[in-house]
């Protein structure tokens, strides 16, 4: 299949691994900021192809993983109401709240449904005027345009029984939060290609310059990732700091201008809490006041629901690149995909789930 097979070519992957080895003279640590990249790295063993001087750490790039616990608890509260049809993508149903998950709410009789698009949820609202239909709108800039479109379309059509519970987060502020921490280990970033497909990469230039950290916009297949690593290592070895675009077949510097226009019309930038990390200023989107009629948090008055993370789960440290999943005492023991303590063990894009599924149980120095 075009744009897949050639980017999974073993000979090309080995070529880039050899190129990386040939130019590496020092130890370097870089972070992939996308859960899809994390999954590919672990699945295909990309880190095993790299010289021992290159360390990959995993960032907060899994949308399920960074959705804060109180958002899950708010979703669970809303989904338990008899007058509600609660909709979500399937991977959110098993994310543990402080007491249970949405799948448990469904088993208890709640009308919880998996949809493939927020526009499917909007259609459900049109078909069920006596019910309040809510869509759980989480994720990075990648999923935001479709969620914005559903709200915009609901207002255009006058569908008053449709709303979204919003927990959108933005990548650049998270990168800044990581780089501004005195304990950070990151010297370069592989930026998320799909985020940049929507937003472009203009916002990364000031981050790279301020923190002297190369950034390479990177795709998701093995050759993409190895080429992105090569480009980042080349910058580091040459002492250069720049923003480069490996994923040029999909990403333009300016991004998708119509999508960005829609996003700015429907959403406004707000402070947002990240699961396991905490509050990051100006790192999320919330609905603008003119769309308050479709804001589930306001409609159901759940903004006051707060909760505390499990003290056992170290997901926050993993998503900041400070630890690997096998550093956690609960990993593979009392935290497994069928009984997760934290969201990174739920989503296929979560580092913990990827490590578990592909047998990465060894100590960090043995990996």
Task: Draw up the topology in text.
Blueprint: H1 10-23, E1 28-32, H2 35-43, H3 46-49, E2 54-58, H4 63-66, H5 69-79, E3 84-88, H6 102-107, E4 112-114, H7 118-127, E5 132-139, H8 144-157, E6 162-169, H9 171-180, E7 188-192, H10 193-199, H11 204-211, E8 215-218, H12 222-238, E9 243-245, H13 257-266, E10 267-274, E11 278-287, H14 296-299, H15 315-319, H16 351-357
In short:
The protein is α/β, with parallel strands linked by helices and 367 residues long.
Overview of this structure, please?
- The protein is of the alpha/beta class.
- The chain has 3 domains: 5-62 and 173-241, Rossmann fold (3-Layer(aba) Sandwich); 64-170 and 255-299, Rossmann fold, CATH 3.40.50; 315-358, no CATH class.
- Helices cover 38% and strands 17% of the residues.
- It has helices at 10-23, 35-43, 46-49, 63-66, 69-79, 102-107, 118-127, 144-157, 171-180, 193-199, 204-211, 222-238, 257-266, 296-299, 315-319, 351-357, and strands at residues 28-32, 54-58, 84-88, 112-114, 132-139, 162-169, 188-192, 215-218, 243-245, 267-274, 278-287.
- Helix 1 (10-23) packs parallel to helix 12 (222-238), helix 7 packs parallel to helix 8 and helix 8 packs across helix 13 (257-266).
């Amino acid at each position: 299949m075009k744009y897949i097979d050639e980017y999974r070519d073993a000979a090309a992957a080995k070529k880039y691994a050899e190129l990386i080895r040939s130019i590496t003279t020092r130890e370097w640590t870089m972070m992939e900021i996308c859960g899809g990249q994390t999954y590919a790295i672990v699945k295909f063993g990309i880190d095993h192809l790299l010289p021992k001087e290159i360390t990959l750490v995993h960032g907060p790039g899994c949308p399920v993983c960074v959705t804060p616990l109180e958002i899950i608890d708010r979703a669970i509260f809303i989904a338990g109401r008899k007058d509600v049809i609660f909709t979500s993508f399937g991977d959110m149903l098993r994310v543990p709240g402080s007491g249970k998950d949405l799948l448990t709410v469904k088993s208890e009789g709640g009308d919880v449904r998996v949809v493939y698009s927020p526009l499917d949820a909007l259609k459900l609202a049109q078909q069920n005027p006596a019910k309040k239909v809510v869509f759980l709108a989480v994720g990075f800039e990648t999923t935001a345009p479709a969620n914005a479109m559903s709200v915009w379309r609901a207002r255009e059509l006058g569908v008053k029984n449709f709303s979204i519970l919003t927990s959108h987060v933005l990548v650049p502020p998270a990168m800044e939060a990581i780089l501004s921490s005195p304990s950070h280990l990151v010297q370069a970033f592989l930026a998320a290609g799909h985020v940049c497909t929507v937003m472009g990469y203009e916002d990364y230039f000031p981050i790279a310059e301020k923190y002297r950290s190369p950034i390479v916009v990177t795709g998701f297949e093995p050759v993409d990732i190895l080429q992105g690593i090569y480009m980042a290592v080349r910058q580091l070895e040459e002492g250069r700091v720049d923003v480069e675009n490996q994923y040029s077949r999909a990403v333009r510097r300016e991004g998708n201008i119509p999508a960005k226009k829609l996003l700015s019309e429907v959403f406004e930038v707000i402070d947002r809490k990240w699961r396991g990390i905490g509050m990051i200023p100006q790192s999320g989107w919330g609905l603008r006041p003119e769309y308050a009629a479709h804001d589930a948090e306001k409609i159901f008055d759940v903004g006051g629901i707060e909760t505390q993370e499990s003290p056992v789960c170290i997901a926050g440290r993993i998503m900041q690149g400070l630890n690997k999943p096998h550093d956690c005492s609960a990993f593979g023991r009392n935290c497994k995909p069928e009984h997760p303590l934290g969201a990174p063990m739920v989503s296929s894009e979560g580092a913990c789930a990827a490590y578990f599924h592909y047998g990465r149980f060894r100590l960090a120095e043995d990996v």
